[in-house]
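Let's sit down with a protein and look at its sequence and fold side by side. Please make up or recall a protein chain and show it to me in full. Label the sequence line and the structure token line clearly, so we can match residues to local backbone shapes. Go ahead whenever you are ready, and we will take it from there.
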Amino acid sequence: MPRMLWKGTLQFGLIKAPVALYAATRRNDIQLDMIDRRTQRPVGIKRINKETGEEVANEDIVRGYRFEDNHYVTLSDEELREASGMKASHTVELRSFTEARELSFMLFETPYYLAPAPGGEKIYALLREALTRRRKIGIAKLIVQTRQHLAALVAYGPVLVLNTLRWADQIQPYDELSLPPLALEAQGIHNRELAMAEQLIERMTESWNPNAHRDTFKDDVLALIERKLHETGVPELHDLASPDDAEGLTSVDDLTDILDRSLVHRAEKRKPALPPTRH
């Protein structure tokens, strides 16, 4: 069962319905504790005053905005809520609707499940069906804890998914990156190379299956841990290859040859297996 984060209200136009917000993702990586290698005991993370070195109690910790060195304006959670109109903090307010293709993938952040609370089933089903038929998504604002979020409300089969969005000013511009120009001629790319690249993409195109992709790094680390638990001698770990190591990178001069070999390799992988010979 997904973990419920809060109960609140879904509002679009004059319509309001009770809903509950659930986590739609879960952490599935390996959790490694910090330990003292001398005693093999966990090392805790304490809230330490950087000036005095003393531990600070939770009730004495507040948020602060630094306006100059060592000078802060302190803000409580209640002040933050009042300053930004967060009193109706458990409302998903739909501001507008738009085409899904108009939203850049760069904006999508974290998905949550939105489910109806008792009494909200009919409005929930109505909005879900309307979004599905019109192929639209809702653009909403909501408050989670003391932060305001922009979000996309998407019909996903039987459930409505509320996907928080990054604000436009959170996206870094790419103007200062050194990028090749869009004109292919400037890179000396020939039509034959482009056609081969497109053909390779088509041969590698397949239906998306998220279950076909696994976190192999996690599997490898778990296997390493398992070996260490059963081996008397701890194997020596070697540094990974430097990311700056250029070995194995494709040379621009060999682009056509690499594309050609890639197409052949992909074609061979897609050949159906021959039936067994009958004697």
Notes: Confidence is low (pLDDT under 50) at residues 237-247. The two ends are 55 Å apart (CA to CA). The longest helix spans residues 216-230. Helices lie at 77-83, 121-134, 191-204, 216-230, 255-269.
